[in-house]
Specification:
This protein is mainly α. The chain folds into two domains: about 15-205 and about 260-475, MFS general substrate transporter like domains (Growth Hormone, Chain: A), CATH 1.20.1250.20; about 210-260. Helices cover about 80% and strands about 0% of the residues. It has 20 helices and two strands. The protein has helices at about 15-35, 40-50, 55-80, 85-105, 110-135, 140-170, 175-180, 180-195, 210-230, 235-255, 265-270, 270-300, 305-315, 315-335, 335-355, 365, 370-390, 400-435, 440-470, 475; strands spanning about 10, 200. The protein has a two-stranded antiparallel ribbon with strand order 1-2. The longest helix has about 35 residues, at about 400-435.
Amino acid sequence: MTRLAAPTTTNTPPATRRWWALAVIALTQLVVVLDGTIVNIALPQAQQELGMSDAQRGWVVTAYALVFGALLLLGGRIADFWGRKRAFMLGMVGFGLASLYGGLAQSGSDLIIARGLQGLFAALLAPAALALLTVTFPSGRERNTAFAVYGAVAGSGAAVGLLLGGFLTEFTSWRWCLLVNLVFVAIGVAIGAVVLGESRAQGRPKFDMWGAVTVTLGFGFLVYGLTLAEGGWLRVDTIGFIAAGVLLLAAFVWIEARVAEPLLPLRILRNRVRAGAFIVQATLGALLIGSTMYLAFHLQLVLGLAPLVAGLATVVMTAATLVVVPLFTRLLPVWGPRAMLIAGPLAAACGMFWLSGVTADGSYALQVLPGLLLVGAGVGITFVPLQNLALVGIAPADAGAASAAVNASMQLGGSIGLSVFALAATGGATRAAAAGAAPAEVLAESYGAVFLAAAIVLLIGAAVAAVCVRGTKEELLPSHG
């Protein structure tokens, strides 16, 4: 039988320090989200300097998202029992060291390993930060405001990463896309040591190592199998890795239902509303992590924009997110979370459908800009209630595990999205080449296929929200008051 959640001990910062704590936590979220995309603009330059193959280039992005997502559940449980502030501080320092290693990389393998190490420490850092936010703002209007700020940062971080990556690549070197993290880490450690309060679950934990092994290998095999599918779905290695991944994930669920202290208590997922929120989060991860890499490629390789200009070209997406967040935060008591979790992905899907029409001779103003505005607005609308809804009603002792599940949904959605979108890109390029298209048009067709696939994923997210997120506004967000 599964034991009830252990009680939690909390040392919450005084009211005067809560907003400083929010600033540090939001900075942390910005770092882990923007690092999913900051290297995207720099990849063409890094690939040339380090002599990477196209496959290695893709793994620079996938390694971060995959390791991050696969280890988040373990990181969340460590934070629950070891101490969330302690886990936060160690995660920050480790993330900084991994960034330094990547910034000094001398080969493609070095860069991929560094990105994996970034993901490892982010898996400790991110759930600790979100759990700290949960216990620092336990209820009321302050909680809703804090989660809206956190959501805005999460929603805009991918585009901020593209912009910052473009600036650094244009005026310094692609290496500074990793080294700049040292600045964020120094600020986060210095301020976090003062303003963050410690909290942890009581008791003497027994870590669910079999659960950790099965979920990590399960997601790893599944994503790797999907990457192999570019060479054919019927290949023995493709089928083998995908099947092994699915079986290991099934074993993980079986284990979690039987161990005394599970890595992911299944009570977190049994709530239909919360499970729906996790799935919506995964679709946003596919959008923000998976498709933005191809957006960066289109802007540079097809439209011929310089790295900085390509980064600036994505700012409109962030601006749209930042504009809609305060507006829809005020509308949350009126609309309720369900309407926003349906309308947001639908708006973003419309934007991706628009982007799917890109051509080699098309203009940014007509083919890209309108789509980015819709995507940014849709992301902002979705994130206003999403983080809060995914964590509402969670016992304090489960805050780290639930926060890890929220982040894992996004990162694993991103890593699986990268694999699926690579298949879409290959299919689009193959069709265009078979039709005798010019090289630039082949690229545009492949990226258009990715954007179309992303739109379909977002429509699935909207449908899941419509089915799973049900109940009155008071039932869905009881802290609103």
